[in-house]
Predict the structure.
Amino acid sequence: MFCIWLTGIPGSGKSTIAKELADELKKKNISVQILRLDEIRKVVTLRITAKRNGILFTEHR
């Protein structure tokens, strides 16, 4: 199992590259799962709840 992480500014083509890469990997019978941070962020985010003595406390939403 391995992970390929594509990063870049919005509109730079990350999704397009991910889809093309996924198609090529599937042709080689490699299982592929594309995770879109935009979708994950809707479900799981960190929220700062307090700051004490310079330590940030966070919680998952």
DSSP finds two helices and two strands in the chain. The chain has one domain: 14-60. The mean pLDDT is 82.
